[in-house]
Every structure is written in C-alpha cells, then in structure tokens.
C-alpha cells in the first residue's frame, strides 16, 4: 500500500520498536530500514524517539543514537527520569508519546503517508486525527510475539498494518555467531 510518488515520513518509537524486535528474536539494521522506505516512496523525514539516562557514565543506547544522528535520522531525545518504586526497585521512565504526536501533527500537511513504528494504543487518537487530515497511516509492530506487541485498537485504526516479522529479511541484522565459535575458527579449531 505504498505509492512511489507519495511523500513519506517515519516515526519510530525507539523503545517500543526495540522491544518488538527483541520479542521476535532479531535486531534491526537501521540503514536497511531507511533504504527500504526510501524505495517505497519519497522519504522526507525519519524520526527516532528515545529517552536517555543523562547521569550514567555509559548508556548502551548512546552509540545507536549517535549513529542514527549521523546517518540521516532526526533524533528526538529527552532525559529519562529515574525513581524508586514502592518496593524499593530502581525504575526508569521516559515516555516520548507527546513529542512524537506533536511532530506528526506539525508534519501532517506536508506528507501523504506516515509510517508509525509502535504498537502503543495511546497513538490511536493520533492516527485518527492524521487520517482526518488526509494522511494515510501505516503501523509497524507485531502480532506474532507472545503477547502481541500491538494494541488491537491501534491496528484496527491504521490504514495498513505491517507485521514487523515480515520485514525481518529486509531490515534485520544478520545474527552474530556466538563468540566462542569464532574464536575456535581463528585458532584453527574448526
């Protein structure tokens, strides 16, 4: 359901997409993801939303954020909030729904099709509003995980649902061999 001449924008809910891909057992190659949607239409913007822990010495997501920033993605980040729950466990909160929604509403008059990478049911009213403005909305998530990573109401509201698992061969990173097997090969063990 893509047309070559339509203006596209990608809106990636980073933590949601990461969780969906992890539930399916693969990693996403963001260079391939971008190329796939450049092939499907005129890609105007690719937004990636994530919260970052500012006070940690090293954030495991920092290299990805830097790579995406230098490779044509519009990065939208904010500091994650840390708190201790009632059981004394350290929790991190970093919801980016409002930022994504505002950006999508602002860009809506300039695009024909928005691809939302999230299964969060909170985005259903956004999808409905974008559709009222004449924008087609595809949602990328998965129903093949246990439990499914997409809210049923979001899937039903979207013009098009794209199963993330169906994109595995197109945007998935090849699985890495376990480290010990590579070490045996280099040592002449295999």
Automatic annotation (TrEMBL):
Entry's transmembrane regions: none
Domain NYN: 7-165
MF terms (GO), sorted A to Z: RNA nuclease activity
Pfam families: NYN
Signal peptide interval: none
Domain of life: Bacteria
Entry-linked Gene3D superfamilies: 5'-nuclease
Listed InterPro entries: LabA, NYN
Protein name: Uncharacterized LabA/DUF88 family protein
Species of origin: Albidovulum denitrificans
